[in-house]
Amino acid sequence: MGIGLGCLVLILIVAYAVIYFKTESRINKTYTINVQKIAVTQSAEALTQGEHLVQIKGCRECHGEDLGGKIFIDDPQLGRLVGANLTQGRGGIMREYTKADLTRALKHGVRKDGKSALLMPSDEYNSLSVEDMGALMSYIKSLRPVDRELPENEIRPLLRVLTFLNKFPLLPAERIDHTKQSVQTVKSEISANYGQYVATGCVGCHRPNYKGGEPLAPGFPPVPNITKSGNLGKWTEDQFIHTLRTGITPEGKKMDPKDMPWTMTKEFTDNEIKSVYLFLKSLPEES
Predict the structure, then answer these.
(1) How far apart are CA 92 and CA 90, in angstroms?
(2) I want to staple 30 with a disulfide (CB 3.0 to 4.6 A). Which of 62, 114, 181, 197 is the partner?
(3) Which residue numbers delimit the Cytochrome c domain (predicted)?
(4) Are the C-beta atoms of residues 153 and 118 closer than 8 Å to each other?
(5) Are 85 and 93 in contact (CB under 8 A)?
(6) What pLDDT digit, counting tens, does each position of 130-186 carry?
(7) How far is CA 90 from the centre of its chain?
(8) Measured between alpha carbons, how far is 9 from 91 in angstroms, rounded to an integer?
(9) What is the pLDDT of residues 1-58, one digit of tens each?
(10) Residue 219 region, left (φ>0) first, then alpha (ψ -120 to 50), else beta?
(11) What is the C-alpha end-to-end distance of the chain, expressed in Å?
(12) How high is the pLDDT of residue 159?
């Protein structure tokens, strides 16, 4: 029995060593990006749209209310993940980031050093129009400096295993088509096409087919199906809007904003929220 247990321990050590070095290789991979030129202005229109995008994209969930950065995951098994200080204050990345660096980080999920950002939803930002990306960058560059120095990220064993198995979206640069060019503008109108543009922010949790599935990580709840073959199929447009703006479903369930970020979706404009409803209702039912 002692020999068998020793062999098992040895196998586990070797397996984790393989996982460690494989994930380290992926984490330290460098990307060379041909960055698309994005205009940055300080016009009132751009700053207003940029602030709106910060609200509906959930930037403050990871980077703090003042966008001065915060630790957003600190778990003994998963590790510590830190949202960077996005200002020009002490500890802020904008003290060093150029416009091209910021474009690379937002659109491609690649840091200034060429390595992938960690758990940054750049695969969602990658589809932003040039106009919207420029507005988002303009707003970030206008932020009041926040002096806040933060600790480094720390990847612990469970997170490495989940990353190795592709069960946790740690490395956004791996999932992005870095040759894709953004369209100049996307018209804000009530349509399923515009809804698809807005609903890219739902893909990270609800999957590319919007049908949800298994939990995003251990301890998380299963992700619901938000196509018409799920509960959405029973909801009217008014009920959908009420749910996304109050966090209360037609069935009377109060949604936890940690699981469903309705505190973000409540900031959708009428055009955005109605278009998302049209898009989700247009998706094919499960066969």
Answers:
(1) 5
(2) 114
(3) 45-144, 190-284
(4) yes
(5) yes
(6) 999 999 999 999 999 999 999 999 999 999 999 999 989 999 999 999 999 999 999
(7) 25
(8) 42
(9) 567 677 777 787 888 899 999 999 999 999 999 999 999 999 999 999 999 999 999 9
(10) left
(11) 50
(12) 95
From the number of C-beta atoms within 10 Å of its C-beta (0-12, 13-18, 19+), residue 198 rates as: buried
Contacts 24+ apart (CB under 8 A), 90-98: 90/145, 90/147, 90/148, 90/149, 91/147, 91/148, 91/149, 91/150, 92/68, 92/145, 92/146, 92/148, 94/140, 94/141, 94/143
d(CA 218, CA 215): 7
Please say whether the beta carbons of 227 and 285 come within 8 A. Answer: yes
CA distance 221 to 43: 42
Question: Are 33 and 174 contacting, i.e. CB atoms less than 8 angstroms apart?
Answer: no
What are phi and psi for residue 50, nearest 5 degrees? -60, -45
pLDDT at 287 over 60: no
Sequential DSSP letters for 33-55: --PPP------HHHHHHHHHHHH
Distance from the Cα of residue 176 to its chain's centroid: 13
